[in-house]
Design brief:
Strands 1, 2, 3, 4, 5 and 6 form a six-stranded parallel beta sheet that branches. α5 links the parallel β4 and β5. The chain is α/β, with parallel strands linked by helices. It has six helices and six strands, in the order βαβααβαβαββα. It comes from Sphingopyxis terrae subsp. ummariensis. One of its GO terms (molecular function) is FMN binding.
Length: 196
């Protein structure tokens, strides 16, 4: 069964490293037969949150905000690729996500975290679990965590070194968990609308 999975990434830093992980996840999901699409907060370029998408009357939201709302609502599941900024959430990704709410509900989300050091963004992943759950998403139990991202990919974007090899070994279980929840949520949404 083919699934539409949006992979969200939110760093705005000049030398951002996490984009390598986000692109690798998109490619790896596509290799499994899913329709995976990257949503790069910097490319979407929404303003700092003033009005959510739902605060606008139909047809009055900025075009980029409207287009992303449609993509989110049509997706079957999500992956959030997040670095750790001072022990917490990336502001660019959080700002993007906060523009939406109902479009995310009743779908699963998986978290892939990373860091330049040895701790692999674990604190950011923990914070995202709370945020995504509060937005109505089921967060999968299998995280994907990557330490020392700067040396974890080769020039072609493939996993490299010990950390990259660990990532490649962990990915199938991460993707299988997301696939199971995506299929289950999709079947349930088709059987009965969400209760509220």
């Amino acid at each position: 069964m083919s699934r539409t999975i949006l992979v969200f990434y939110g760093s705005y830093r000049r030398d951002r490293q996490g984009i390598k992980l986000a692109r690798w996840i998109v490619d790896s999901l596509a290799a499994r037969g899913d329709r995976a699409e990257l949503v790069d907060a910097m490319a979407v370029d929404l303003p700092m949150l003033d009005r959510r998408h739902s605060d606008f009357a139909a047809g009055e939201a900025p075009a980029a905000m409207d287009a992303l709302a449609d993509r989110i609502a049509a997706a079957d599941g999500f992956v959030f690729v997040t670095g750790e900024y001072n022990g917490g959430l990336q502001p660019g990704l959080k700002n993007l996500v906060d523009h939406y709410l109902p479009q995310f509900a009743w779908r699963p989300a998986a978290i892939a975290s990373y860091s330049a050091g040895p701790f692999a963004g674990i604190r950011a992943a923990t914070a995202w679990r709370t945020t995504l759950g509060a937005m109505g998403m089921v967060v999968t139990a299998t995280p994907l965590s990557l330490a020392r991202i700067g040396s974890a990919f080769d020039a072609d974007g493939g996993p490299a070194g010990e950390d990259g090899e660990r990532l490649a070994r962990a990915f199938p279980r991460f993707a299988d968990d997301l696939a199971w929840w995506t299929d289950a949520a999709k079947a349930q949404r088709e059987q009965a609308p969400p209760p509220f």
